[in-house]
C-alpha cells in the first residue's frame, strides 16, 4: 500500500521557519519525483517545489525561491521542505505527492499519482 505522510506543519510568526517532512512507503522511493503543493483558502492548489530522488534535481516556484529548500533522504524514504522567511501568504495546507514514473521534473498535478493528506501551515503577521 502506498502511503505519503506529511508532518511538521504548525503556526509560526512571519519571518519564522518550519520544516515539513514527507515520509513515503509502498513504492520505489529512489526513482521517483516528490513534489510539494499547497492550497490556500479560496485558491487553487499550486506547486511549490519538487525533487528527483534519483539524481537530486530540484525545482522551485518563483514565489518560494531563495526561501524554501527541498531535500531528500533516500535512506529514510523521506523528503523535507525547509521553509524560511515565512510570509502570511505562505499560509496553506501543504501536500506532498509522488510521481512514480517521472518523465520530467515538473510541478504538474496530473503527473503525480499519489498524494498525502496534507499538513496545515499558518503564518501570522
3D architecture notes:
The protein is mainly beta and 125 residues long. The protein is 0% helix and 50% strand. The strands form two sheets. Strands 2, 4, 5, 6, 9, 10 and 11 form a seven-stranded mixed sheet that branches. A four-stranded antiparallel sheet has the order 1-3-8-7, with no helix packed on it.
In a nutshell, what does this entry contain?
This protein is an all-beta fold and 125 residues long.
Characteristics of this structure?
single chain; 125 residues; mainly beta; 7-stranded mixed beta sheet; 4-stranded antiparallel beta sheet
Element-level helix/strand string: EEEEEEEEEEE
The multimeric state of the shown protein is: single chain
> What is the radius of gyration computed over CA atoms, rounded to a whole number of angstroms?
13 Å
Shape: globular
**Class derived from helix and strand content:** mainly beta
Describe the sheet with the most strands: 7 strands, mixed
The first-to-last residue Cα distance is 40 Å
Helix content: under 10%
Number of strands: 11
Mean pLDDT: 96
Low-confidence spans: pLDDT under 50, at least 5 residues? none
Beta strand %: over 45%
Q: Helical segment tally?
A: 0
Summarize the SSE layout with pairings.
Blueprint: E1 3-7, E2 10-13, E3 18-25, E4 33-39, E5 46-52, E6 58-60, E7 68-73, E8 78-83, E9 92-99, E10 114-115, E11 119-124
Parallel strand pairs: 2-11
Antiparallel strand pairs: 1-3, 3-8, 4-5, 4-9, 5-6, 7-8, 9-10, 9-11
